[in-house]
């Protein structure tokens, strides 16, 4: 049922000429709560789930979601997994409408992997606009709602489809590591009934637990973990750099060899001309030194760079908070 | 009533003493959402509650889903197959959540509810019935939980009486963080760390102001003094650690320097990344 609906939507969409770019993701409070609950229950394991919603002009409205069960053995449960999805979609589809995107939990922002990109590309085949929502449960301990909506940028997608990540192509498109993922601002909407209920049920104290969490002075464990991840990523990055260096070195070596061979050929040809014979061709494709060395893909290094930037941002954010706290403490003590 | 046998109206106490129930806000959200999206002819929404029973007797309600039903004056029909399908699907994700009861919107308990309660008690020994008043009939949204108790006259079952049990709204910290956002009808962007910090400090300031005002009032005699509160305040003020100024300054400066070091490190890392990227892509292959 879902497939036929998707097809008719595609047909309808094919008649549209201009697609307005995605500007905002509008999420219902219900979806946020569900994501938080699911990610928190299973942390530290990473979990994923499916989002359901509507695509309206430049706004993507997410109205419901359901979690994926954790797979232990992939072979047996693959068929089950597909069944589960269809079942849930059918059950929820009885009451709500369509479209599918995805959410994922992460730990301290280490979500940028090749698998994520592959999943994105898979979804992109069927649905024109898909967004991934990343939630970080470990940052909630710091009192921050770490929810982000990500989408692959179009230029990156084209490159990925062509499966070429060489330096020239990237320079052509002017694509840097920042351009892989685009972050889309999130707007939260709630029905009036829910707001009424929540205002009703709220406890009377103006200060809640999250305030106590925010005001806690010790942010050391969190920072330590961030730094650990940062160091690991740096190691990975240096491995990638070494790969590149090796490639460049072997490339230049090969070119030197080619030049030498060419010189020899030319000298030979001169001799032959002097001797009155036909000159040999200046190229010899069967010679192994002419074999082009494949350039290593830059995708990994881009992803790692993105990760590192993420960690740095997080460190900056937490440091900012810590500064505030320290100065607060200082003024308290002075009084 | 026959004069001869003196039959006694028995109130059987529930088999497992269910003292109270705790509900997570997600459940209420779910219910409201289903109510808002219900098909036009239905007046109320009925669904299943999932959760677990804690060892001390409280029931923890963690999740819920709506079950399509049709209702007329005499009978109520539930889509049992849908109910089972959803249950199986939910349990695949979270096998610890089991059926603990059912909910319906609307204030009191109606006649049809007894039948549904009966149906659910076949699945679970003592189902909880949750009513969520979406019509705000009393001027406020009330959420009530009931347990059914069988009234028996001698050996005959007469009716089921719904007894109310205390209900508690419990919230996990992570959910509290987003709570402000969830209260309004539309929020334009999620607050980032510094803004959250601002809000928190504002709240702390408000608290301190309140305490200040209270102490002033007591001193001036406007409010009768309460010894307990006075003792609390004294304890709080005394719990600020007494450090000599040089020791405190040293402590603060050390922490400040640590944070600055980390900030510096992250800035260097980013510069390094910028450089590396330029080198990588700018290299010309001859």
UniProtKB/TrEMBL annotation, chain A:
Keywords: Cytoplasm, Initiation factor, Protein biosynthesis
PROSITE patterns: MPN
Domain of life: Eukaryota
Residues covered by region (Disordered): 260-292
Domain MPN: 25-156
GO biological process, one term: formation of cytoplasmic translation initiation complex
InterPro entries from the UniProt entry: eIF3h (IPR027524), eIF3h_C (IPR045810), JAMM/MPN+_dom (IPR000555), JAMM_MPN+_peptidase_M67A (IPR050242), MPN (IPR037518)
Residue ranges with Basic and acidic residues bias: 265-276
GO molecular function, one term: translation initiation factor activity
Cell compartment(s), UniProt: Cytoplasm
Gene Ontology CC: one annotated term: eukaryotic 43S preinitiation complex
CDD domains: MPN_eIF3h
Main location: cytoplasm
Function: Component of the eukaryotic translation initiation factor 3 (eIF-3) complex, which is involved in protein synthesis of a specialized repertoire of mRNAs and, together with other initiation factors, stimulates binding of mRNA and methionyl-tRNAi to the 40S ribosome. The eIF-3 complex specifically targets and initiates translation of a subset of mRNAs involved in cell proliferation.
PANTHER family registered for this protein in UniProt: EUKARYOTIC TRANSLATION INITIATION FACTOR 3 -RELATED
Similarity comment: Belongs to the eIF-3 subunit H family.
Subunit structure: Component of the eukaryotic translation initiation factor 3 (eIF-3) complex.
Official protein name in the record: Eukaryotic translation initiation factor 3 subunit H
Species of the source: Gossypium tomentosum
From TrEMBL, chain B:
Any single GO CC term annotated in Swiss-Prot or TrEMBL for this entry: eukaryotic 43S preinitiation complex
Main location: cytoplasm
PROSITE patterns assigned to the protein according to its UniProt record, in alphabetical order: MPN
InterPro entries, A to Z: eIF3f (IPR027531), EIF3F/CSN6-like_C (IPR024969), JAMM/MPN+_dom (IPR000555), MPN (IPR037518)
Keyword Protein biosynthesis: yes
Gene Ontology molecular function: any one: translation initiation factor binding
Intracellular or extracellular location(s): Cytoplasm
Cross-referenced SMART domains: JAB_MPN
BP GO annotations: formation of cytoplasmic translation initiation complex
Sorted UniProt keywords: Cytoplasm, Initiation factor, Protein biosynthesis
Domain MPN, residue spans: 21-152
Subunit details: Component of the eukaryotic translation initiation factor 3 (eIF-3) complex.
Protein family membership: Belongs to the eIF-3 subunit F family.
Purpose: Component of the eukaryotic translation initiation factor 3 (eIF-3) complex, which is involved in protein synthesis of a specialized repertoire of mRNAs and, together with other initiation factors, stimulates binding of mRNA and methionyl-tRNAi to the 40S ribosome. The eIF-3 complex specifically targets and initiates translation of a subset of mRNAs involved in cell proliferation.
Protein name: Eukaryotic translation initiation factor 3 subunit F
